[in-house]
Amino acid sequence: MSVQVRGLGHSVKRKEDPRFIRGKGTYVDDIKLPGMLYMDIVRSPYAHARILNIDASKALALPGVLAVITGKDLDAAGLAWMPTLMSDRQMVLPVDRVVYQAQEVAAIIATDRYIAADAAVLVDVEYEPLPPVVDPHKALEPDAPLVRPDRETKSNHIWHWEAGDRARTDELFQEAEVIVKQDLYIPRIHVSSIETCGCVASFDKVSGKLTVWMTTQAPHAIRTVFSLVSGIPEHKIRIISPDIGGGFGGKVPVYPGYVIATVAAIQTGRPVKWIEDRSENLQADSFARDYHITAELAAKRDGTMTALRVKTIADHGAFDAAANPSKFPAGLFSVCTGSYQLQAAHIQVDGVYTNKPPGGVAYRCSFRVTEAVHTIERMVDILADKLQMDPAELRLKNFIQPEQFPYKSATGWEYDSGNYPAALRLAMERIGYADLRREQAEKRARGELMGIGISTFTEIVGAGPSHTFDILGIKMFDSCEIRVHPTGSAIVRIGVQTQGQGHETTFAQIVAEELGLPVEQIVVEHGDTDTAPYGLGTYASRSTPTAGAATAVAARKIREKARLLAAHLLEASPDDIEWRDYKFQVKGTPSRSKTMAEVAFAAYTNHPLGMEAGLEAVCYYDPPNLTFPFGAYICVVDIDRGTGEVKIRRFLAVDDCGNIINPMIVEGQIHGGLTMGMAPALMEAITYDENGNIQQGTFMDYLLPTAMETPAWETAKTCTPSPHHPLGAKGVGESATVGAPPAIVNAVVDALSHLGVTHLDIPITPWKVYQILEQHGLVEV
Amino acid sequence: MHFEGQQTIKAPIETIWEFLMDPYRVAECAPGFQSMEVLSSEHFKPRVGVAVGPVKATFTLDVVLNDLRPPHHAAMIGHGVAAGSAVDMSSSMDLKAETETITAMTWSMNVDVSGKIASVGARLLEGTARKLTEKFFDCLRQKLEVRSTAPAT
């Protein structure tokens, strides 16, 4: 029976894959409507300039061009600015100045995509260049160019945020026997999903209904924002997020292109499509990271860690347009005390404007957890180096112990469950840690460079309890609605939305498990605001912790009604009916039983008097806490002394995400996450020259890993269920992205530690390593 | 980006000055020169096409000569736009007669490129700009030397 159901713990093949591997997915650019127009965008060459004049006459003269929309046009409709999800505001199109390179300046509406692109070249924009500021430290100097003169506060400082106990932390630092301090820069990176951003906006002038197919991770939140900004009643707005080719946080913000295309559709009365090209996506869409961190860790001489002090300058670009929960401008960065017992910590972050595109996107991480984990995992290694202790031993000495959960961290988070020593011990045993250390010593004696790096991270995902988490005031619950049909199949609609995570499979498995229906007979829908229940969307590994829980609870509501129906069919008291082996049985008489399919049929054909017909339920789930997945990663690197290249020889990821719904999908999430963690560690960074020109404007210069650079990942797992999640699950989509970078950096630093290297900023490019080898006369010719 | 250079030109200083004050003659040396609108003897708008790596663009430049101290010193400020790109440059040049027929020219140039050309062609930009600048001054020297020696042959 359980083989047919294939609920929790089964590697069910992904229901969505047949359409993807046959090329039959429906992405936004696949939407084609009769009479559809196309939009292209004129973008600023300058990082900072005044707009003196926009002459669109040549563009308008091109046959097929219907309109050229500028900031002045939008301003007349009160739409030149839009609110961001961070209570800032952002230009949709500029009225008089541009504040970063590649910013939208005007939009062309034409009958054909190529005519629109040709016309964009013909728009003459007269600029008066202004001095840009691209370094957030310089942006804080008193005479720095002002990025946002529209604000009341005439400064580039956006906000100051802190967490923890400053006084106690200072005390512990005064008493400390050992203090290590390090500046860490986590560079700006880009999510670079395969599908760029875009939309098709369509406005029905008769019904007054606006429908927008949009590359968004949060369709309901977008609908509400659109309604509030435009004044169109919310029931007359439908946002559809169809198949999405990767989100990774980059498709949470509202981009100006969505708004301009919508305005154009309303004005022309014809559908308007806007699809970014690759360079536009890479140059103008919101970026991640860009944290300038100074961290200090205090400890005793025996290695007992006591306190952590962190100060950070957060470069948010020209608009604070990230999508952090509103009470957390620095996201969940304060989880940077990690997996360790600390008596106190004090964390400060200052947000700063610069003449760069908006930053702060939670790139495959739960709101700044990547930065937090990088900080603590690097600092622990720096402390180990200072104390001449083995980094594994130092970690084992300071771990929060299994019996201490639920554990209140020094910055106030309540970790739900964990067993950190078990995960690290498993990783050390699997990879043969002691043997690797012996090998390293032998190689070092021969002049070969090999390093072993550890990262034992704790994630914080599943935002969140609504008492603490909201976006623009909308509480961060999530939802599920299930209808069981008379013949025992079901439709499940969820408030979260997939961008490749496999929701159509895993959510069907949850319902299969709870209702005893075969997974094939359960269809999952999401992403259409006209049909799906309200939810905050998929990011920050929140789908399983929030909507996954909602799905389990909704299914249990159905099962409870089904139990009453079963009692009616079996002519027994409901108290005597139990759910066993995926069916209802009369206690002690297994031969008298009813399947869910039989009960479902009765719900529509033979329901008892006084009971409503049908079998459906809705749940809006407000999690009591976040979940805290964790892991122990060990990376082994060899360094090529000829080229400075870092070669990952082995990488073992031991993950603990609680109970697993689909092991194959979890494995896939970890493989993808590790690759996306390796990329910023070794390859990716977005930099700007002093004029604010982006220097990685194409994939020629922005290096994404391919199969060539990706090592064969090894994985293993421990299982510590979440005590508060209905399924004991925790979420896993981002663990590997968060946990991998410090393991790799720690391995490279370990390989070079005998040369006095204690820290390297990412990305650790061959050139960076080569320079160190050259300094020490170690380059092999 | 900052570039500077020095040339020794086998031509009298006055000949060189006269040449340099003729926008049409100078334009012959501008790489990718297409056409020009002359607004005054010190203000003109040439159109030039440039290619940096994979990006090609046609710039309409607005060039103003200033600080003219004949025949020893001239400076220029230029500003140009192309689709998605912009360039701002300033340049100055000094001439010194070494002999009656030999003149030393020293020049320096600041070029700031913004937009698509800078972001897509970043790795190639400095090399291309240096090459184009050197080509321009080499061309000037060649034309001047041909010109000044022409009557003698």
Q: Helices and strands in order, then pairings?
A:
The complex is a heterodimer of chains A (781) and B (153).
Chain A lengths: L1 H4 L11 H5 L15 E7 L5 E7 L1 H5 L3 E6 H6 L4 E3 L5 E3 L5 E2 L5 E7 L2 H10 L1 E6 L6 H4 L17 E8 L1 H10 L2 E12 L8 E7 L4 E6 L4 H12 L6 E4 L15 H13 L3 E4 L2 H7 L3 E12 L5 E11 L28 E9 L16 H19 L3 H8 L8 E2 L5 E2 L4 H12 L1 H13 L4 E9 L11 E2 L2 E2 L2 E7 L5 E5 L8 H13 L6 E5 L16 H28 L6 E4 L2 E4 L2 E7 H10 L10 E6 L8 E10 L6 E11 L6 H20 L31 E4 L17 H18 L13 H10 L6
Parallel strand pairs in A: 1-14, 12-13, 16-17, 24-25, 31-32
Antiparallel strand pairs in A: 1-7, 2-6, 2-8, 3-7, 4-5, 9-17, 10-15, 11-12, 11-14, 15-16, 18-19, 20-30, 21-22, 23-24, 23-29, 26-27, 27-28, 30-31
Helix pairs in contact in A: 11-19, 15-16, 16-17, 18-19
Chain B lengths: L1 E8 L3 H8 L2 H5 L5 E8 L2 E10 L2 E15 L3 E10 L2 E13 L5 E13 H5 L1 H28 L4
Antiparallel strand pairs in B: 1-7, 2-3, 3-4, 4-5, 5-6, 6-7
Describe it for me?
The complex is a heterodimer of chains A (781) and B (153). Chain A has 781 residues and is α+β, with helices and mostly antiparallel strands. Among the domains of chain A are: 2-24 and 478-621, Aldehyde Oxidoreductase, domain 4; 417-463 and 627-781, Aldehyde oxidase/xanthine dehydrogenase, molybdopterin binding domain (Aldehyde Oxidoreductase, domain 4, 2-Layer Sandwich), CATH 3.30.365.10. Chain A is built from 20 helices and 32 strands. In chain A, the strands form 9 sheets. Chain A has a 7-stranded mixed sheet, sandwiched between helices. In chain A, helix 18 packs across helix 19 (735-752). The relative contact order of chain A is 0.13. With 153 residues, chain B is of the alpha+beta class. Chain B has a single domain (2-152), classed as START domain (Alpha-D-Glucose-1,6-Bisphosphate, Chain A, domain 4). Chain B is 30% helix and 50% strand. Chain B has helices at residues 13-20, 23-27, 116-120, 122-149, and strands spanning 2-9, 33-40, 43-52, 55-69, 73-82, 85-97, 103-115. A 7-stranded antiparallel sheet of chain B has the order 1-7-6-5-4-3-2. Chain B is globular. The model of chain B has no long low-confidence stretch (mean pLDDT 88). Chains A and B meet through strand 8 of A and strand 6, strand 7 and helix 3 of B.
